[in-house]
Amino acid sequence: MRGHAYLVGGYRPGSSPVHRMPLRLKLPLLLGLGAAALAVQDALPRSVVVLVVLALHFAAGGNFRQLLSPLRAMWLFLLVLVAYQVWQQGPAGAWRILAGLLACVYAANLLLATTPLQRLLDMLVAAVRPLQRFGADPERFALAIGLMLRSIPFLIGSFTDVRDAAKARGLERSPRALILPVLISAVAYARPTGDALAARGLGGRDGADPPARPPG
């Protein structure tokens, strides 16, 4: 399916300064930019943050087409959001909200585009390891993050494929034609994922084997 090949924020190998930046510096930088975009309330500082993130995007070898990719799945949400904010606060207020959202989305995608997923997960494991004394499991935490980063783009791609297929058949207004195939696809994706986790001893609670079925 075409949509399933689409991975939001997929890693793009490169040798740019952003790629070579140590993760211990890059992660706080991009998280700080996203937090700053949400913390400040004026449109001008948020616009500056967006420009900084865009500059880093192009410094990492990105292009305009890649800027549009993460927005394709949320264009309807953005349209409704901007229209509502223009009605409530005017164009300046709408841009302030949109700029904060774009800064966070582009900063997150830049992090994933310039950092191998395994390297990012290894850092998350190291960050969570001190919490083991409180019962935290760093490996399972990293596994959950990895599954989330893979599953969300799959579901987005599945919905895109189903929507295009329904539109080609003139059924784009039918909830059944849109929702049911996505649910089937999600279940088909989840079952082999669950089987793979169970094969690695992660299927039962606390890694225990599932209870045996009674005879007969």
Automatic annotation (TrEMBL):
It is a multi-pass membrane protein. The keyword Transmembrane applies. It is found in: Membrane. InterPro entries: ABC/ECF_trnsptr_transmembrane (IPR003339). CDD domains: EcfT. Keywords: Membrane, Transmembrane, Transmembrane helix. The chain crosses the membrane at residues 46-64, 71-87, 93-113. This is Energy-coupling factor transporter transmembrane protein EcfT. It comes from Arthrobacter deserti.
